[in-house]
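Minutes, project check-in
Item: structure for the 256-residue chain
Input as provided by the requester:
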Amino acid sequence: MSSTEQAEEVIATIPGWQDASIRVLPGGLTNRNYIVETEGRRGVLKFDAAPRSSPLNTRADEAVVQKQGARIGLANEVLYVDETTYLVEYVDGDVWTPQHLDDDANLLQLARAMRRLHAMPLTGRVFDAKAAANLYRAELDGADASIAREHVELIESMRRPKNICCCHNDLVAANILATPELRFLDWEYACDNDPFFDLATVVEHHELSNRQAELLLDAYFEGDGMRWRRQLAEQQRLYKSLLWLWAAARPRLFDT
């Protein structure tokens, strides 16, 4: 059975969407996404081969935090969720690319949106970078295993955050949607974490310059960003190592 046929079977079980048309939505590294449409309504459908587990949220936990984001305009509405199915509203807008971060005005807008994100209620689930690192490491062997050991040791040497808040934990450009107000997509890793992890993801993943990093920090801290540069750099190191481990293990961990 093709993946599109599987999607048709899944959508046929969701009340009100049984007759929806389906087409593949390009992109997605750990999901195959579909745009579904019926009676003028559009949604994005994701489905999993099995219920999700750490470091990913369960679909139910993902829905709880995404609904919180939707209430304040930072996320699209969740339309349906069960253990392996996730349907959210499709909203027209401009999905960012790394080039959007070259515009200082966009960095300022992103900093404001991140402040609102980090003011959301705690989820009650704390991101465990050490557990995630060891999970990814367990999938590797050979030369990759040797490199992975160094990354895991770095992550394990880092102190636990003193201050945590609700974080997205995957703020790459492709998960930012301008409507024109910013919304965040794919809340599958969202939980409580050091707010500098989200900032570090933006800076490290997109290789922002020192000037851009300082601009983002200043905007986030309303002109008082420079004294937080050390905390940002620490989380950049953590993110860089975690990203390497995730990328190396992804082909074995996730069905793409």
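Outcome recorded: The chain has a mean pLDDT of 94.
No further action items on this chain.
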